[in-house]
């Protein structure tokens, strides 16, 4: 490189600029003896010829001895550029001249990773035929298969699997191709991976399974595919969450119905606070989900006993929140009903009343509805069987409400 080339004024700089598309000038400069490996502003002449999609200039530079694997300042080789841009003709040229098919840039991206990530199927086929390493990963641990799955390139996924790509290979975040495809709802990719017998229960670093991540993102079709493939729908994350809980919390009625149909464990609770899907659905006001969960229980009394147990564990939180007399009066209360009344979710409260119960007997009012003066909630809950309320007596919020004349206390006689 001459002194003038440092300022972009020499012949080498002129060759690099001309290589973008000026074939006549390139020919003239090469005939003049300018090195075909000239570089300007970090890029080589061959790099620019590939970027500019000029196969004839590429051939000319290679004929004059250009270094086929010379990289720019960021480690990008001509083949990397060609694969990333999907330049099929130039990829063929470079492979014919034995370009390094596995040379990576400064981020660990290989030609195959570039092509798979960007969806260039024909280029991927050429690289696989040239014996590119299908399991090499970038600095994030992402393979060509992972990136093809992440971008919904189902055809490329199948090509890579046929080339024996590691189907269960995990990224640095411990995510498989199935995990990322499940998260994004790419059913064709998920189907291809399942057909090739991937591990449908492989979790990421947080213990989140493909089934759970699909539920978290409301990917019904993907979840159905995973269930049909034998995925464990009761599998918990490290935080103790599971698909039914997440679906109930989000109000994802269709997914809840699918899980119930698939024989999910309805009695399952979170590991940290023993919160049930029924409770979280009620607390969030998802009436349709509450209705599904209630009638999915084989025995209403079993569900009652379970939620009561959960309430006893949560009772200190109610006391801390200054809910009067709770510690004395609500040992047999239903936490789901209480949470519902507290949040004014009238529709959810209503479905806690089994239709076969005699609504003319044992009128009771769950405490929070009175104390928080939720008139409509009280109006509904007075029809609940006594097993769903609290016992009468002078230590109950209901008694206190009557004695102090709270505005809604009269509703217990409605």
TrEMBL record:
Pfam families for the chain: Ank, Ank_2
Keyword Repeat: yes
Family matches, as PROSITE patterns: ANK_REP_REGION, ANK_REPEAT
InterPro entries: Ankyrin_rpt, Ankyrin_rpt-contain_sf
SUPFAM superfamilies per UniProt: Ankyrin repeat
Sorted UniProt keywords: ANK repeat, Repeat
PANTHER family in alphabetical order: ANKYRIN REPEAT AND PROTEIN KINASE DOMAIN-CONTAINING PROTEIN (PTHR24198), ANKYRIN REPEAT-CONTAINING PROTEIN-RELATED (PTHR24198:SF165)
Full protein name: Serine/threonine-protein phosphatase 6 regulatory ankyrin repeat subunit C-like
Species in which this protein is naturally found: Thraustotheca clavata
